[in-house]
Amino acid sequence: MKKYNFNAGPSMLPREVIEATADACLDFEGSSLSLMEISHRAKNFQPVVDKAVELVKELLDLMALYKMNKFHWHLTDDQGWRIEIKKYPLLTEKGAWRKFNSHDKECIRQSKVNDNPDMAIPESKIRIVEGDTLYGGYYTQEDIKEVIAYAKVRGIDIVPEIDMPGHMLAAISNYEGVSCFDETGWGTTFSSPVCPGKDSAIEFCKNVYSELIELFPYKYVHIGGDEVEKTNWKKCPDCQKRMRDNKLKTEEELQSWFIHDMEKFFNDKGKEMIGWDEIIEGGLSKTATVMWWRSWAKNAPSKTTGQGNPIIFTPNGQFYLDYQEDKNSVANIYNYDPMSEIQNAEMQPLVLGVQGNVWCEWIPSRERMQYMAIPRLLAIAELGWSNPSQKDWNAFARRLANQFERLNIMNINYRIPDLEGFNKTNAFIGEGIVNITCLDPSAEIHYTTDGSVPTLQSPKYDGPVKVTETTDFTFRTFRPNGKPGDITTTRFIKSEYTPAVTAAPSNPGLKATWHEFKGNKCTEIEKAPVNGNYSIEDVMIPKKVKGNIGLIIKGYINAPQDDIYTFALLSDDGSTLVIDGEQVIDNDGPHGPREVVGQKALAKGYHPIEIRYFDQNGGQLKMKVSGNDGKEIPFTHLYAH
Ligand code: ACM
Ligand code: ZN
Question: Which of 88, 102, 443, 615 could form a disulfide linkage to 619, CB 3.0–4.6 angstroms apart?
């Protein structure tokens, strides 16, 4: 059975042209067409309009090559309004341009400190107005027609999104009667939303969508509906009146009232609606399609399909292509099974497909966007097209190697996957061997051991290297065209087994202290006030711990024998691991899900450990420990005082 049957869904349109390129693609399974989408948060791409259109076309070519057939185009956000709306010209005149924000400044900083031109803001996206340097741009309606025509002959449908009622800063800052209060900007978590209590605001939203619907000749429109801060709604007399008039008990229900009202408007114009999974919260209509993005909102798939509504999978744990890649990212996508989230097999046909998202807050250039999207995009395509029973990672990895060759010829700027065969830190007793592999056989690897940045003139790695002393390696990959890729540092540490402590701890589990922490560095957690103490059986976020999280977790690991132990610490955001008073893993700082792996040689017995972790919204924390034989050591070996 083909679980992802494109033709089974009522939403599917023919894709004649794509078949022309099919023989040149990865080996997709069979002929069923799946709904695969790539969302492109447009906000950073469109300053010089012509160029931006060319960039979108290039992306569409790439999608067609890999048989992706839905382009979800996120056209507006707080950081920029990217589509011309003729009735409201200020949306682009003002809303498409901004002074450099913290994202832009961070991109510029990284371009300098990492000597990476792909992180620089291209001149073409900048203009000077009355002495202010502004970043931005937008698509005219003519541009959009051009993109639609281009997508059509490539068999790609576009799902346009104007995100509301949140993420609408351009609208609420430039037009009266759209927000609850005159004062606009950021609340505590997200921007002030549209006021669903005001008829003028609803009319504004519908007018904007009327123009969008005129432009895009497709079945779906995407309302957005994500990340809405509702504090204004609680205080706004118009919102409260709307709630009373419609017998709405909560602000979540008010959000659903707004979404349902918009959906009726779309339906009247012959369109169906998709929304991010937040649209479930105050009550989901019978007809909306849900796009699941919040990996941590775990019941969203079963809630959606349990009610009979279709769903598209883009959980951020795997499918956010703007998140920093690590050595597991491509495999995590490839091995993902959407059906595992939906227990009732009868509901599984409601899964329309999988989607990757490229949000561009920290992506200033074409090269950077391609670098972030590829090769993960290929894994998404393969996942969407494959019969799950026939998935085979090794076969995919082999075919991926050929695709790198092709992408080199096409001058597409992909990311060379992480080098493998070592951890961030590696312990050895006596003599160690550095043995490296890479999924991309066309990559050339050069290295230094003096901390300097490797160049094409540095020693070339072409086989295992022996180490007898503690050595810091810096590796750098290069594309065949000489373009440098990532720099990886790894330390090989000449070690002795660290002696165990003598006193055996008595209680099973670990002790976690939760601090009300709003910072972004693990070393600062203890300065924040304590919210509570928890006993946990595993390295994890205790169930009751939410919001501003700073955790300090303490206990002991019981090493079953003298051995070199490997610790893999996954966190979103930052984390650190200290064993016997020595830092083994530094996974600190704000970031998406990222695993860092380190090693330490431990003598048999108890060793004190401390894990620190912070996050402010929907994070993850997980630690795996294995011995030198690669076997995982279960967490019952951890004890607290
Ligand atoms: C989202 O990433 N806020 C949908
Ligand atoms: Zn209001």
Answer: 615
